[in-house]
Specification:
The chain has an 8-stranded antiparallel barrel. With about 200 residues, it is of the alpha+beta class. The model has no long low-confidence stretch (mean pLDDT about 85). The chain is built from 6 helices and 9 strands, in the order βααββαββαββααββ. It has a single domain (about 1-195), classed as Alpha-Beta Plaits. Keywords: Monooxygenase, Oxidoreductase, Plasmid. This is Antibiotic biosynthesis monooxygenase family protein. GO terms for molecular function: monooxygenase activity.
Amino acid sequence: MRFSINILKADPQADIARTWTAARAAPSAQPGFVEAKLHRVYKQLNRDGYSHVSMEAWSSPEACGKVHTTPENLYEIVNQGRSADWAPDPGNLIVTNPYRIPPDEAERHAEMWDTSKRHMETREGFVDAYLFRAVDKNSEYFFVSRAEWRSEDLFMRQFSGKDFKQIVKPFEGIFAICLSHVVATVKPSIQAEVVG
């Protein structure tokens, strides 16, 4: 699979869902388009910087390449985890973290992410998590992570334990932790749904 991920900076109160949905009409009609989701950030825990995250999924790099002709903002999954107890749900909390790091620091950050993922997989309310790596090593964000939780309260419980704090402490300030909800989804064949 291949993903087009865009970190958007706009007025958080602006209704960009309809404009974003309309812009997905042509790509969603292309072979290999899987799905696109727009996340609206409602809370930033440690850094300011963006208001929305757009994620488009494609069945293959070739299908994606027919629409996205430059590697900018293209990603592949390099690690993932899923709960056996919970399925993704449109009302769940989505936590996104874009990482501005040089490529030579990638391995250290990937190890931290894997350790925190294994920790989260054991916690109540965890649904799934993905670590995406930029196809172009010169992309603004080398990694983008996305985790889904049943609620904000269940996610925030991670920060009350010493074990999780020890995992992420050396990396604080490098990535922005943002809480969001999916506000629009586009499926193949131009079937779009705006939920908020």
